[in-house]
Write a structure and sequence with these properties.
The chain is mainly α and 320 residues long. It has one domain: ABC transporter involved in vitamin B12 uptake, BtuC (Orthogonal Bundle).
Length: 320
């Protein structure tokens, strides 16, 4: 159980070192080592410590948050192709962030507005799906899809009415862009705390993944556990969207691929998702910074280019 996590941890560390070394200005390994020891030139220290390290950590935290949220959503909806954005959280966050951008608010207030929008979307979906009775996974899924479509219409209307000089920043945010992340510490803290909270529930999650009736028969409190999963996945997704905008496919692809390789034991899948999701987004962001350097691509473009063929392959494989 520990060996796969150690391997993923080593790969994550190598990906971070690669992200620190590569960019519009490449840093040789010797210079990178000197900066890590507190030496090196002033330019290299500024480039690594002030610019690349926070962005790399933010990318790792965002990818980990999305992957863990995806793993939880796939358990909650009992659908291996579920995605953390499926309940319309990214749409609510996008509306909140775009309203803040239109109002000319600062970065901190934009992040706060995005988080507020995501949590409002969570309450809206849960309220509509619950109605006057209890909700089921299919009812929750359908409600989320409809609400997400509504958010999409609102976003389109806002973009159509926005002055042209404000559109580039808004579009980059919608496509996912880690360069907006000013500090990674909140996202990293939420990721670590979520994994610590979830791991004691892993055995019950293994049972719940087999179905609510089987879980109830084995003594699991199904409804409180489902509420816990829903709230945790919502907070993780809202934090990720607040940090880097809408970055697609990480929460869908990573947990599903890990289950194909490591099995379906949540004691392994959940921490492995945090490490693998973080690694994937760090590598994608490195590619986004270097492929047309000194220009940069939104990291969401890279994850979409990687995620679409992978999703189609998994869909074909699951059908077969």
């Amino acid at each position: 159980m520990i060996r796969p996590l150690l391997g993923l941890g080593a790969v994550a560390l190598l990906a971070m070192l690669l992200a620190l070394a590569l960019g519009s200005v490449n840093i040789p390994p010797l210079e990178l080592w000197q900066v890590m020891r507190g030496e090196g030139s002033v330019l290299s220290r500024t480039l690594l410590i002030d610019l690349r390290l926070p962005r790399t950590l933010a990318a790792f935290a965002t990818g980990g948050l999305l992957a863990v949220a995806g793993a939880l959503m796939q358990i909650l909806l009992r659908n291996p192709l579920a995605d953390p954005y499926v309940l319309g959280l990214s749409g609510g966050a996008a509306v909140g962030a775009l309203l803040a951008m239109l109002a000319g608010l600062g970065t901190l207030l934009i992040s706060g507005s995005a988080f507020t929008g995501a949590m409002l979307a969570t309450l809206l979906v849960f309220g509509l799906a619950h109605g006057t009775g209890s909700w089921t996974s299919s009812r929750l899924l359908l409600t989320g899809v409809v609400v997400a479509a509504g958010w999409g219409a609102v976003i389109t209307l806002m973009l159509a009415l926005t002055p042209s000089y404000k559109l580039p920043g808004m579009l980059y945010w919608l496509m996912g862009d880690v360069s907006y992340a000013r500090t990674p510490w909140l996202a990293l803290g939420v990721l670590v705390l979520a994994v610590v909270v979830i791991l004691p529930l892993a055995r019950n999650l293994n049972v719940l993944a087999r179905g609510p009736m089987q879980a109830a028969a084995l003594g699991v409190s199904v409804r409180p556990l489902e509420w816990t999963i829903y709230l945790l996945a919502s907070v993780l997704t809202a934090t990720a969207v607040t940090t880097a905008g809408s970055v697609g496919f990480v929460g869908l692809i990573v947990p599903h691929m890990l289950r194909l390789v490591l099995g379906n034991d949540q004691r392994i899948i959940l921490p492995a998702s945090a490490l693998a999701g973080g690694t994937l987004l760090v590598l994608a962001d490195t590619l986004a910074r270097t492929v047309i350097a000194p220009e940069q691509l939104p990291v969401g473009v890279i994850t979409a280019l990687l995620g679409v063929p992978t999703f189609l392959y998994l869909l074909h494989r699951s059908r077969g």
